[in-house]
Design a protein that fits this description.
The structure holds 2 protein chains of 2 kinds. Chain A is an alpha/beta fold. Chain A is built from 8 helices and 11 strands. Chain B has 2 domains: 118 residues, Rossmann fold (3-Layer(aba) Sandwich); 114 residues, Hypothetical Protein Yjia, Chain: A,domain 2. The chains are: A alpha/beta, B alpha/beta.
Chain lengths: 271, 259
Protein backbone atom coordinates (compact mmCIF):
# COMPACT_ATOMS: atom_id res chain seq x y z
CA UNK A 1 0.00 0.00 0.00
CA UNK A 2 1.25 3.47 -0.82
CA UNK A 3 0.63 6.45 1.35
CA UNK A 4 1.17 10.15 0.84
CA UNK A 5 2.76 12.55 3.31
CA UNK A 6 2.05 16.27 3.01
CA UNK A 7 3.36 19.15 5.08
CA UNK A 8 3.43 22.95 5.46
CA UNK A 9 0.18 23.83 3.72
CA UNK A 10 0.29 27.44 4.91
CA UNK A 11 -3.27 28.40 4.07
CA UNK A 12 -2.68 28.01 0.32
CA UNK A 13 -5.94 26.44 -0.85
CA UNK A 14 -5.09 26.19 -4.56
CA UNK A 15 -1.89 24.29 -3.75
CA UNK A 16 -3.62 21.94 -1.28
CA UNK A 17 -6.39 21.13 -3.76
CA UNK A 18 -3.88 20.44 -6.53
CA UNK A 19 -1.85 18.10 -4.33
CA UNK A 20 -4.93 16.22 -3.09
CA UNK A 21 -6.07 15.84 -6.71
CA UNK A 22 -2.64 14.43 -7.59
CA UNK A 23 -2.83 11.97 -4.68
CA UNK A 24 -6.39 10.94 -5.57
CA UNK A 25 -5.48 10.41 -9.21
CA UNK A 26 -2.99 7.73 -8.13
CA UNK A 27 -5.56 5.91 -6.06
CA UNK A 28 -3.72 6.59 -2.81
CA UNK A 29 -6.13 6.51 0.10
CA UNK A 30 -3.86 7.03 3.10
CA UNK A 31 -2.58 10.53 3.70
CA UNK A 32 -0.66 11.91 6.67
CA UNK A 33 -0.18 15.63 7.24
CA UNK A 34 2.79 17.07 9.16
CA UNK A 35 1.19 20.36 10.17
CA UNK A 36 1.49 24.07 9.53
CA UNK A 37 -1.96 24.22 8.03
CA UNK A 38 -1.99 28.00 8.50
CA UNK A 39 0.36 30.96 8.46
CA UNK A 40 1.18 33.61 5.84
CA UNK A 41 -1.31 32.29 3.28
CA UNK A 42 -4.74 33.79 2.56
CA UNK A 43 -7.17 30.87 3.21
CA UNK A 44 -6.56 29.46 6.71
CA UNK A 45 -10.17 28.45 7.42
CA UNK A 46 -10.65 26.85 4.01
CA UNK A 47 -7.49 24.76 4.34
CA UNK A 48 -8.23 23.62 7.91
CA UNK A 49 -11.76 22.71 6.91
CA UNK A 50 -10.57 20.72 3.89
CA UNK A 51 -8.17 18.71 6.07
CA UNK A 52 -10.94 18.12 8.60
CA UNK A 53 -13.43 17.15 5.92
CA UNK A 54 -10.96 14.66 4.39
CA UNK A 55 -10.18 13.34 7.91
CA UNK A 56 -6.45 13.47 7.23
CA UNK A 57 -4.43 12.46 10.32
CA UNK A 58 -2.37 15.54 11.14
CA UNK A 59 0.28 16.46 13.67
CA UNK A 60 0.75 19.98 14.98
CA UNK A 61 3.12 22.38 13.26
CA UNK A 62 4.85 25.42 14.75
CA UNK A 63 2.34 27.83 13.21
CA UNK A 64 -0.58 25.71 14.40
CA UNK A 65 0.88 25.83 17.90
CA UNK A 66 1.67 29.55 17.88
CA UNK A 67 -1.72 30.56 16.53
CA UNK A 68 -3.26 28.92 19.59
CA UNK A 69 -0.66 29.71 22.24
CA UNK A 70 0.03 33.24 21.05
CA UNK A 71 3.24 34.89 20.01
CA UNK A 72 5.43 33.56 22.73
CA UNK A 73 8.19 32.05 20.62
CA UNK A 74 11.51 33.69 21.35
CA UNK A 75 13.19 36.02 18.85
CA UNK A 76 15.28 33.12 17.51
CA UNK A 77 12.32 32.15 15.36
CA UNK A 78 13.08 34.99 12.96
CA UNK A 79 16.35 35.81 11.22
CA UNK A 80 15.68 39.54 11.01
CA UNK A 81 13.51 42.35 12.30
CA UNK A 82 11.82 42.49 8.90
CA UNK A 83 10.94 38.79 8.99
CA UNK A 84 9.69 39.13 12.56
CA UNK A 85 7.39 42.04 11.76
CA UNK A 86 5.99 40.30 8.70
CA UNK A 87 5.54 37.10 10.69
CA UNK A 88 3.69 38.95 13.44
CA UNK A 89 1.47 40.67 10.87
CA UNK A 90 0.59 37.30 9.32
CA UNK A 91 0.04 35.82 12.78
CA UNK A 92 -2.43 38.50 13.90
CA UNK A 93 -4.26 38.40 10.54
CA UNK A 94 -4.62 34.62 10.75
CA UNK A 95 -5.58 34.58 14.43
CA UNK A 96 -8.32 37.16 13.81
CA UNK A 97 -9.75 35.23 10.87
CA UNK A 98 -9.66 31.65 12.16
CA UNK A 99 -12.96 30.38 13.55
CA UNK A 100 -13.08 29.09 17.12
CA UNK A 101 -13.91 25.63 15.80
CA UNK A 102 -10.82 25.58 13.60
CA UNK A 103 -8.66 26.92 16.42
CA UNK A 104 -9.90 24.11 18.63
CA UNK A 105 -9.02 21.59 15.92
CA UNK A 106 -5.46 22.98 15.67
CA UNK A 107 -5.09 23.07 19.45
CA UNK A 108 -5.98 19.40 19.78
CA UNK A 109 -3.54 18.15 17.13
CA UNK A 110 -0.94 15.70 18.46
CA UNK A 111 2.78 16.50 18.39
CA UNK A 112 3.59 13.20 16.69
CA UNK A 113 1.88 10.39 14.85
CA UNK A 114 3.23 6.85 14.71
CA UNK A 115 2.53 3.92 12.45
CA UNK A 116 4.66 0.90 13.37
CA UNK A 117 8.27 2.04 12.82
CA UNK A 118 7.26 5.17 10.94
CA UNK A 119 7.18 8.38 12.95
CA UNK A 120 5.57 11.57 11.70
CA UNK A 121 6.49 14.99 13.15
CA UNK A 122 6.50 18.58 11.95
CA UNK A 123 10.03 19.73 12.84
CA UNK A 124 11.76 17.03 14.85
CA UNK A 125 10.73 14.61 17.61
CA UNK A 126 12.05 17.27 20.05
CA UNK A 127 10.13 20.28 18.85
CA UNK A 128 7.90 21.65 16.10
CA UNK A 129 10.44 24.47 15.80
CA UNK A 130 13.58 22.43 15.20
CA UNK A 131 14.82 22.12 11.61
CA UNK A 132 16.22 18.80 10.45
CA UNK A 133 18.25 20.08 7.53
CA UNK A 134 19.63 17.65 4.94
CA UNK A 135 23.22 18.51 5.92
CA UNK A 136 22.67 18.26 9.67
CA UNK A 137 25.47 16.49 11.54
CA UNK A 138 24.94 12.77 10.91
CA UNK A 139 25.28 11.78 14.57
CA UNK A 140 22.72 14.36 15.65
CA UNK A 141 20.37 13.30 12.85
CA UNK A 142 20.71 9.64 13.81
CA UNK A 143 20.10 10.52 17.44
CA UNK A 144 16.80 12.21 16.53
CA UNK A 145 15.54 9.10 14.73
CA UNK A 146 16.93 6.46 17.10
CA UNK A 147 15.82 8.00 20.38
CA UNK A 148 12.32 8.40 18.98
CA UNK A 149 12.26 4.64 18.34
CA UNK A 150 11.70 5.05 14.60
CA UNK A 151 13.14 3.47 11.49
CA UNK A 152 11.90 6.20 9.23
CA UNK A 153 11.20 9.70 10.45
CA UNK A 154 8.92 11.86 8.31
CA UNK A 155 9.27 15.60 8.90
CA UNK A 156 8.60 18.94 7.23
CA UNK A 157 9.29 22.51 8.46
CA UNK A 158 12.31 23.17 6.19
CA UNK A 159 10.15 23.38 3.04
CA UNK A 160 12.87 21.50 1.18
CA UNK A 161 12.02 17.87 0.38
CA UNK A 162 14.73 15.26 0.76
CA UNK A 163 15.39 11.62 1.65
CA UNK A 164 18.42 11.00 3.85
CA UNK A 165 19.68 7.51 4.60
CA UNK A 166 21.80 7.11 7.71
CA UNK A 167 23.90 3.98 7.21
CA UNK A 168 26.65 2.31 9.19
CA UNK A 169 25.65 4.03 12.39
CA UNK A 170 27.12 2.82 15.63
CA UNK A 171 27.12 4.02 19.20
CA UNK A 172 30.06 3.20 21.48
CA UNK A 173 29.56 3.60 25.21
CA UNK A 174 32.33 3.51 27.83
CA UNK A 175 31.17 3.31 31.43
CA UNK A 176 33.48 3.87 34.38
CA UNK A 177 31.82 2.87 37.61
CA UNK A 178 33.16 4.00 40.95
CA UNK A 179 35.42 1.47 42.71
CA UNK A 180 35.18 -1.02 39.84
CA UNK A 181 38.49 -1.35 37.97
CA UNK A 182 38.65 -0.83 34.21
CA UNK A 183 35.73 0.80 32.38
CA UNK A 184 33.37 -1.42 30.46
CA UNK A 185 32.75 -0.76 26.78
CA UNK A 186 29.78 -1.55 24.65
CA UNK A 187 29.27 -0.91 20.97
CA UNK A 188 25.94 -1.01 19.26
CA UNK A 189 25.66 -1.34 15.46
CA UNK A 190 22.56 0.42 14.19
CA UNK A 191 20.54 -0.64 11.17
CA UNK A 192 19.91 1.92 8.45
CA UNK A 193 17.67 4.78 9.50
CA UNK A 194 15.97 7.35 7.28
CA UNK A 195 14.75 10.90 7.47
CA UNK A 196 12.19 11.88 4.85
CA UNK A 197 11.29 15.52 4.47
CA UNK A 198 8.00 16.09 2.68
CA UNK A 199 8.82 19.64 1.57
CA UNK A 200 5.96 22.11 1.44
CA UNK A 201 2.59 22.16 -0.26
CA UNK A 202 1.78 25.82 0.26
CA UNK A 203 5.11 27.62 0.54
CA UNK A 204 7.76 25.78 -1.51
CA UNK A 205 11.40 26.62 -1.11
CA UNK A 206 13.25 24.17 -3.28
CA UNK A 207 14.00 26.38 -6.25
CA UNK A 208 10.60 26.16 -7.87
CA UNK A 209 7.05 27.33 -7.23
CA UNK A 210 5.65 23.80 -7.47
CA UNK A 211 3.99 22.23 -4.45
CA UNK A 212 5.86 19.20 -3.10
CA UNK A 213 4.93 16.12 -1.10
CA UNK A 214 6.16 12.52 -0.83
CA UNK A 215 4.74 9.07 -1.47
CA UNK A 216 5.95 6.20 0.70
CA UNK A 217 5.68 2.79 -0.94
CA UNK A 218 5.08 0.46 2.01
CA UNK A 219 6.02 -2.74 0.23
CA UNK A 220 9.39 -1.63 -1.08
CA UNK A 221 10.16 1.17 1.37
CA UNK A 222 10.82 3.46 -1.58
CA UNK A 223 10.04 7.15 -1.29
CA UNK A 224 9.03 9.32 -4.25
CA UNK A 225 9.19 13.11 -4.08
CA UNK A 226 6.35 14.61 -6.09
CA UNK A 227 6.20 18.13 -7.52
CA UNK A 228 2.78 19.46 -8.48
CA UNK A 229 1.86 22.50 -10.55
CA UNK A 230 -0.88 24.68 -9.14
CA UNK A 231 -2.42 28.06 -9.86
CA UNK A 232 0.15 30.25 -8.08
CA UNK A 233 -1.36 33.43 -9.53
CA UNK A 234 -4.72 32.58 -7.96
CA UNK A 235 -3.18 32.36 -4.49
CA UNK A 236 -1.19 35.56 -5.13
CA UNK A 237 -4.40 37.39 -6.01
CA UNK A 238 -6.01 36.04 -2.85
CA UNK A 239 -3.05 37.32 -0.78
CA UNK A 240 -3.47 40.84 -2.17
CA UNK A 241 -7.28 40.74 -1.92
CA UNK A 242 -7.02 39.63 1.71
CA UNK A 243 -4.92 42.68 2.57
CA UNK A 244 -1.83 40.68 3.45
CA UNK A 245 1.51 42.32 2.48
CA UNK A 246 1.85 42.35 -1.32
CA UNK A 247 5.44 41.24 -0.99
CA UNK A 248 4.11 37.83 0.22
CA UNK A 249 2.58 37.36 -3.25
CA UNK A 250 5.84 38.36 -4.92
CA UNK A 251 7.85 35.95 -2.78
CA UNK A 252 5.42 33.06 -3.37
CA UNK A 253 5.37 33.67 -7.13
CA UNK A 254 9.17 33.42 -7.21
CA UNK A 255 9.51 30.34 -5.01
CA UNK A 256 10.92 32.27 -2.05
CA UNK A 257 9.66 31.60 1.45
CA UNK A 258 7.68 34.39 3.08
CA UNK A 259 10.41 34.70 5.69
CA UNK A 260 13.89 33.29 5.64
CA UNK A 261 14.89 30.52 8.00
CA UNK A 262 16.44 31.41 11.33
CA UNK A 263 20.23 31.61 11.26
CA UNK A 264 20.73 28.91 13.87
CA UNK A 265 18.44 26.33 12.34
CA UNK A 266 19.14 23.68 14.95
CA UNK A 267 18.18 25.98 17.81
CA UNK A 268 15.22 24.78 19.80
CA UNK A 269 13.19 27.55 21.32
CA UNK A 270 12.81 27.03 25.07
CA UNK A 271 9.76 28.83 26.26
CA UNK B 1 47.16 75.08 -14.69
CA UNK B 2 45.35 72.17 -13.12
CA UNK B 3 43.35 69.71 -15.15
CA UNK B 4 39.55 69.84 -15.39
CA UNK B 5 37.92 66.65 -16.65
CA UNK B 6 34.21 66.21 -17.35
CA UNK B 7 32.72 62.74 -17.77
CA UNK B 8 29.12 62.06 -18.75
CA UNK B 9 26.96 59.01 -19.23
CA UNK B 10 23.66 57.30 -18.34
CA UNK B 11 22.89 56.03 -14.82
CA UNK B 12 24.91 53.03 -13.73
CA UNK B 13 27.40 53.16 -16.59
CA UNK B 14 30.35 53.32 -14.19
CA UNK B 15 31.05 57.06 -13.91
CA UNK B 16 31.70 57.07 -10.17
CA UNK B 17 33.75 53.87 -10.30
CA UNK B 18 35.91 55.39 -13.03
CA UNK B 19 36.15 58.66 -11.11
CA UNK B 20 37.29 56.82 -7.99
CA UNK B 21 40.07 55.04 -9.87
CA UNK B 22 41.19 58.29 -11.46
CA UNK B 23 41.19 60.12 -8.13
CA UNK B 24 43.05 57.31 -6.37
CA UNK B 25 45.73 57.37 -9.05
CA UNK B 26 46.07 61.15 -8.83
CA UNK B 27 48.62 62.26 -6.27
CA UNK B 28 47.88 65.98 -6.15
CA UNK B 29 44.95 68.01 -4.79
CA UNK B 30 41.58 67.10 -6.28
CA UNK B 31 37.95 68.13 -6.30
CA UNK B 32 34.72 66.49 -7.43
CA UNK B 33 31.49 67.95 -8.69
CA UNK B 34 28.29 66.27 -9.87
CA UNK B 35 25.90 68.02 -12.24
CA UNK B 36 22.56 67.02 -13.69
CA UNK B 37 22.67 66.71 -17.45
CA UNK B 38 20.13 67.39 -20.12
CA UNK B 39 16.64 66.07 -19.52
CA UNK B 40 15.24 63.50 -21.91
CA UNK B 41 11.62 62.62 -22.59
CA UNK B 42 10.44 59.78 -20.34
CA UNK B 43 13.80 59.54 -18.55
CA UNK B 44 13.95 60.94 -15.02
CA UNK B 45 17.27 62.02 -13.59
CA UNK B 46 18.05 60.31 -10.31
CA UNK B 47 18.59 62.63 -7.37
CA UNK B 48 22.05 61.58 -6.18
CA UNK B 49 21.56 63.30 -2.81
CA UNK B 50 25.29 63.42 -2.19
CA UNK B 51 25.87 59.67 -2.23
CA UNK B 52 28.68 59.75 -4.80
CA UNK B 53 30.53 62.62 -3.13
CA UNK B 54 30.24 60.99 0.32
CA UNK B 55 31.50 57.67 -1.05
CA UNK B 56 34.39 59.27 -2.96
CA UNK B 57 35.38 61.44 0.02
CA UNK B 58 35.45 58.34 2.21
CA UNK B 59 37.75 56.57 -0.23
CA UNK B 60 39.85 59.66 -1.04
CA UNK B 61 39.80 61.80 2.12
CA UNK B 62 41.80 64.65 0.52
CA UNK B 63 39.00 65.10 -2.05
CA UNK B 64 37.31 68.49 -1.97
CA UNK B 65 33.60 68.99 -2.59
CA UNK B 66 31.77 71.43 -4.87
CA UNK B 67 32.35 74.36 -2.53
CA UNK B 68 36.01 74.36 -3.42
CA UNK B 69 35.69 73.14 -7.00
CA UNK B 70 36.17 76.71 -8.16
CA UNK B 71 38.95 77.45 -5.74
CA UNK B 72 41.61 79.42 -7.49
CA UNK B 73 44.36 77.45 -5.79
CA UNK B 74 43.20 74.16 -7.25
CA UNK B 75 42.78 75.49 -10.75
CA UNK B 76 46.17 77.16 -10.70
CA UNK B 77 47.96 74.21 -9.16
CA UNK B 78 49.62 72.26 -11.94
CA UNK B 79 48.98 69.07 -9.96
CA UNK B 80 45.31 69.91 -9.37
CA UNK B 81 42.51 67.76 -10.77
CA UNK B 82 38.84 68.72 -10.87
CA UNK B 83 36.51 65.89 -11.90
CA UNK B 84 33.01 66.78 -13.03
CA UNK B 85 30.44 64.01 -13.36
CA UNK B 86 27.31 64.61 -15.45
CA UNK B 87 24.41 62.17 -15.60
CA UNK B 88 23.26 62.41 -19.19
CA UNK B 89 21.42 59.74 -21.14
CA UNK B 90 22.58 60.66 -24.63
CA UNK B 91 25.99 61.71 -25.99
CA UNK B 92 26.49 65.49 -26.21
CA UNK B 93 25.19 66.83 -29.50
CA UNK B 94 28.20 69.09 -30.15
CA UNK B 95 31.88 69.22 -29.35
CA UNK B 96 32.98 70.79 -26.05
CA UNK B 97 30.69 72.18 -23.37
CA UNK B 98 28.36 73.49 -26.07
CA UNK B 99 27.10 69.93 -26.37
CA UNK B 100 25.60 70.11 -22.88
CA UNK B 101 22.39 71.74 -21.75
CA UNK B 102 21.93 75.14 -20.15
CA UNK B 103 22.04 73.70 -16.65
CA UNK B 104 25.53 72.27 -17.05
CA UNK B 105 26.88 75.22 -19.00
CA UNK B 106 25.60 77.82 -16.52
CA UNK B 107 27.00 75.89 -13.55
CA UNK B 108 30.38 75.57 -15.21
CA UNK B 109 30.34 79.27 -16.06
CA UNK B 110 29.39 80.24 -12.51
CA UNK B 111 32.22 78.13 -11.13
CA UNK B 112 34.57 79.32 -13.88
CA UNK B 113 35.40 75.78 -14.78
CA UNK B 114 36.59 75.13 -18.31
CA UNK B 115 36.98 71.40 -18.94
CA UNK B 116 40.00 70.51 -21.01
CA UNK B 117 38.83 66.91 -21.35
CA UNK B 118 35.23 65.80 -22.01
CA UNK B 119 34.44 62.10 -22.16
CA UNK B 120 31.11 60.32 -22.62
CA UNK B 121 30.50 56.68 -21.72
CA UNK B 122 29.60 54.62 -24.76
CA UNK B 123 31.25 57.07 -27.14
CA UNK B 124 34.84 57.63 -26.10
CA UNK B 125 37.25 54.69 -26.03
CA UNK B 126 39.14 56.14 -23.04
CA UNK B 127 36.18 55.03 -20.89
CA UNK B 128 35.02 51.45 -20.32
CA UNK B 129 31.99 50.69 -22.49
CA UNK B 130 30.76 47.41 -21.07
CA UNK B 131 28.20 48.82 -18.61
CA UNK B 132 26.57 51.33 -20.92
CA UNK B 133 22.86 50.70 -21.28
CA UNK B 134 20.23 52.53 -23.26
CA UNK B 135 16.95 53.38 -21.61
CA UNK B 136 13.67 54.29 -23.21
CA UNK B 137 11.78 54.96 -19.98
CA UNK B 138 13.05 55.54 -16.50
CA UNK B 139 11.46 56.63 -13.21
CA UNK B 140 13.55 57.83 -10.30
CA UNK B 141 12.85 57.77 -6.57
CA UNK B 142 14.97 58.60 -3.59
CA UNK B 143 14.65 58.84 0.15
CA UNK B 144 16.77 60.30 2.90
CA UNK B 145 17.92 57.84 5.53
CA UNK B 146 19.74 60.43 7.59
CA UNK B 147 20.28 59.15 11.12
CA UNK B 148 18.70 55.80 10.27
CA UNK B 149 20.33 52.53 11.31
CA UNK B 150 19.45 49.21 9.67
CA UNK B 151 18.99 45.81 11.18
CA UNK B 152 21.73 44.09 9.14
CA UNK B 153 19.79 40.95 8.18
CA UNK B 154 16.75 43.04 7.29
CA UNK B 155 18.89 45.19 5.00
CA UNK B 156 20.06 42.05 3.27
CA UNK B 157 16.47 40.85 2.71
CA UNK B 158 15.27 44.29 1.59
CA UNK B 159 18.09 44.72 -0.91
CA UNK B 160 17.45 41.23 -2.31
CA UNK B 161 13.77 42.05 -2.84
CA UNK B 162 14.53 45.53 -4.23
CA UNK B 163 16.95 44.45 -6.95
CA UNK B 164 14.98 41.32 -7.85
CA UNK B 165 11.79 43.16 -8.70
CA UNK B 166 9.56 43.06 -5.62
CA UNK B 167 8.94 46.81 -5.88
CA UNK B 168 9.01 47.31 -9.65
CA UNK B 169 11.62 46.77 -12.36
CA UNK B 170 14.67 48.28 -10.74
CA UNK B 171 17.49 49.07 -13.17
CA UNK B 172 19.67 50.97 -10.77
CA UNK B 173 19.88 51.27 -6.99
CA UNK B 174 22.52 52.77 -4.80
CA UNK B 175 22.60 53.79 -1.18
CA UNK B 176 24.70 54.55 1.84
CA UNK B 177 23.43 52.50 4.78
CA UNK B 178 24.37 52.63 8.46
CA UNK B 179 24.70 49.54 10.66
CA UNK B 180 24.44 49.48 14.47
CA UNK B 181 28.11 48.60 14.95
CA UNK B 182 29.21 51.95 13.52
CA UNK B 183 30.02 50.72 10.03
CA UNK B 184 28.37 51.97 6.87
CA UNK B 185 28.09 50.35 3.45
CA UNK B 186 27.87 51.68 -0.08
CA UNK B 187 25.25 49.38 -1.64
CA UNK B 188 25.36 49.44 -5.42
CA UNK B 189 23.30 47.59 -8.04
CA UNK B 190 22.97 47.85 -11.79
CA UNK B 191 20.79 45.56 -13.86
CA UNK B 192 23.69 44.80 -16.20
CA UNK B 193 25.79 43.47 -13.31
CA UNK B 194 25.56 39.91 -12.01
CA UNK B 195 25.38 40.91 -8.37
CA UNK B 196 25.26 43.85 -6.00
CA UNK B 197 28.28 45.51 -4.47
CA UNK B 198 28.35 46.00 -0.69
CA UNK B 199 31.41 48.12 -0.08
CA UNK B 200 32.31 49.13 3.48
CA UNK B 201 33.19 52.76 4.10
CA UNK B 202 36.65 53.28 5.53
CA UNK B 203 35.34 55.73 8.11
CA UNK B 204 33.59 54.04 11.01
CA UNK B 205 31.89 55.62 13.99
CA UNK B 206 31.82 54.25 17.54
CA UNK B 207 28.65 52.20 18.16
CA UNK B 208 26.97 54.98 20.07
CA UNK B 209 23.70 56.60 19.02
CA UNK B 210 22.74 57.56 15.53
CA UNK B 211 25.44 58.48 13.00
CA UNK B 212 25.44 61.89 11.31
CA UNK B 213 27.04 60.85 8.03
CA UNK B 214 25.25 61.01 4.67
CA UNK B 215 22.71 58.20 4.28
CA UNK B 216 20.47 58.07 1.23
CA UNK B 217 18.84 55.62 -1.16
CA UNK B 218 18.33 56.25 -4.88
CA UNK B 219 16.33 53.91 -7.12
CA UNK B 220 15.74 54.10 -10.87
CA UNK B 221 13.56 51.79 -12.90
CA UNK B 222 10.07 51.19 -14.26
CA UNK B 223 6.72 50.84 -12.49
CA UNK B 224 8.35 51.55 -9.14
CA UNK B 225 6.32 51.08 -5.97
CA UNK B 226 7.62 53.79 -3.59
CA UNK B 227 4.99 53.04 -0.94
CA UNK B 228 6.05 49.41 -0.86
CA UNK B 229 9.73 50.33 -0.66
CA UNK B 230 9.07 52.82 2.13
CA UNK B 231 6.93 50.36 4.10
CA UNK B 232 9.61 47.68 3.98
CA UNK B 233 12.34 50.16 4.92
CA UNK B 234 10.28 51.13 7.98
CA UNK B 235 10.23 47.48 9.05
CA UNK B 236 14.02 47.26 8.66
CA UNK B 237 15.15 50.34 10.63
CA UNK B 238 16.01 50.07 14.30
CA UNK B 239 14.01 51.99 16.89
CA UNK B 240 15.86 53.98 19.55
CA UNK B 241 15.46 51.39 22.31
CA UNK B 242 16.51 48.46 20.10
CA UNK B 243 19.50 50.39 18.78
CA UNK B 244 20.55 51.35 22.31
CA UNK B 245 20.30 47.74 23.47
CA UNK B 246 22.31 46.41 20.52
CA UNK B 247 24.98 49.08 20.87
CA UNK B 248 25.27 48.44 24.61
CA UNK B 249 26.02 44.79 23.83
CA UNK B 250 28.58 45.81 21.20
CA UNK B 251 30.28 48.18 23.63
CA UNK B 252 30.53 45.41 26.22
CA UNK B 253 32.14 43.13 23.64
CA UNK B 254 34.83 45.67 22.78
CA UNK B 255 38.20 44.94 24.40
CA UNK B 256 39.07 47.28 27.24
CA UNK B 257 42.49 48.93 27.29
CA UNK B 258 44.96 47.39 29.71
CA UNK B 259 46.29 49.74 32.38
Amino acid sequence: MNHAVISCLHANLAAVEAVLDDIDSQGIQTITCLGDLVGYGPQPNEVVELVRQREIPTCQGCWDEDIIDGLNACECSYPSQLAERRGHRAHHWTADLLTEENKTFLAELPMTLRRDKLLFVHGSPNSQHEYLLPDMNAFAALERVETAGAETLFCGHTHQPYVRELRQGSIRVKVQQRDQGAPTEQELELPMRRIVNAGSVGEPRHGSTKATYVIHHDNTGEVTIREVDYDVAKTCRAIVDAGLPEVFAWRLSHGFEYAERAEDASHVCER
Amino acid sequence: MGQVCLISGPPGCGKTTWALQRLQQHQGPCAYLRLEGEKAVGLEQGDDSGIDLAWLKDQVPRLEGPATANATDLKQDNDGLTLIEVQQFYPPSKEGVEGFGDNVRSKLEALQLHPDQLLHFGRDPELPAKDTLEFSKLEAWHTSLSGCVWDPNSLSSFWFELVNGAYGDVYRAKGLMNLPDGRAFFCNWMVSQESSQFLPLDATAPPQGRPSRTSELVVQGKALNPEGIQATISDCLLADDVLAMQQQQLQQQQPTSQG
